[in-house]
Amino acid sequence: MNVLTFTDRGIYCPAGDFHIDPWRPVPRALLTHGHSDHARGGMDTYLSTDLAAPVIRHRLGPIRLDTIRYGEPRQIGGAKVSFHPAGHVPGSAQIRVEVGGEVWVVSGDYKVVDDGLSTPWEPVRCHAFISECTFGLPVFRWTPQEELRDQVNGWWAQNASEGRFSLLGAYSLGKAQRVMHLLDPSIGPILTHGAVEAVTQVLRDQGMPLPPTTRVTPDLDLKAHAGAMVIATPSALNSTWARKFGNASTAVASGWMALRGIRRRRGTDRGFVMSDHADWPGLNEAIRATGAEKVFVTHGYTAAFRRWLEEQGYDAGIVSTDYAGEEVLAHDEAPKDIIDEDAPGGAVA
Fold first, then answer.
1. Are 158 and 201 in a shared domain?
2. Model-level pTM?
3. What span, in angstroms and rounded, lies between the C-alpha atoms of 184 and 150?
4. Which of 122, 134, 144, 182 is the most buried (most CB within 10 A)?
């Protein structure tokens, strides 16, 4: 039984007559989270977790949005639906769909490491699992959380001691707040780009444990904030906005920093290996934990990861989607000839 089908509008459930993270207008959309490639405007109605709703409303404006709690069952037509923690960003969910005793799970985006802000990922048993594989090669292995904390604060402290600003590029939803959560505010003040501050305030209003930050505005006295950490969108690092800080060291927090040469091509001084997507061990751990026999992979190193899954005995397929998420936007920068001894069959991307 095909509980879900794959259409030109997105992942569709015929029994419930709804789409999951559709990229074209549909009557009923179930959303895994608030990133712009998964939560798009133009749908008649929306359903998301109560924790994801504030950011979704912030980004999409006045929409018809209903909410659901993690683990709460809901009957939609002939389908039984529930949302479960994905650990990707605050409020993110995997969506479980059951029809006639057959269970399929759409992961959205996920990570298995507890970042201290998002509700931690939990496995959901199913017959079929639709998994992202943004970082589906063995070269992608993330820096442990505590080590990452030491790296970021050490870089900031060194810059501050020398009177330099620390400009760090991180996506406005998820990554930026995760960086903030790692910071030691005793080092100095924390400044934010407007796009980062807007989302941060939405999450802070929900009770997220985030340190005080100051939005960078044209009238902000930067001399009074010398040595500050400045969290900006990655695209702002090479802009006129960034040049106003003068004496500054720049860095990017991204899973792509695991690849040789990416930091150099980004033109930054430092790169921190950090992602809100699952790394290679995380992908494999998550898929095993579902107990699924059939696995569909989306966006990322789909061909190599599917081959790997088939070698492990899974019935694996590739699903073409229109997802090109906050972190996936950098995918075109990834070298096409990454070879790793431990890759599937010595495979390449």
1. yes
2. 0.91
3. 10
4. 134
- Same domain membership, residue 120 and residue 14: yes
- In angstroms, the Cα distances linking 13 to 6, 75, 195 are 9, 13, 35
pLDDT at 324: 62
Domain limit, last residue, from 216, 249, 273: 273
Judge if 15 and 74 occupy the same domain: yes
Total count of domains within the chain: 2
18: domain CATH number is: 3.60.15.10
Q: What is the pLDDT of residues 19-59, one digit of tens each?
A: 999 999 999 999 999 999 999 999 999 999 999 999 999 99
Q: What percent of the chain stands above pLDDT 90?
A: 86
| Domain co-membership, 14 together with 126 | yes
What does residue 60 show for φ and ψ, rounded to 5 degrees? -105, -10
Tell me which of 58-62, 154-158, 325-329 is least confident: 325-329
Structural domain including 313 reads 5-140+276-346
Do 41 and 61 fall within a single domain?
yes
Contact 138, 75 (CB under 8 A): no
DSSP code, position 124: -
What's phi and psi for 316, nearest 5 deg? -115, 145
pLDDT tens per residue across span 256-265: 999 877 766 6
Distance, in Å, from the CA atom of 13 to the CA atom of 290, rounded to the nearest integer, reads 20
pLDDT at residue 181, as a whole number: 96
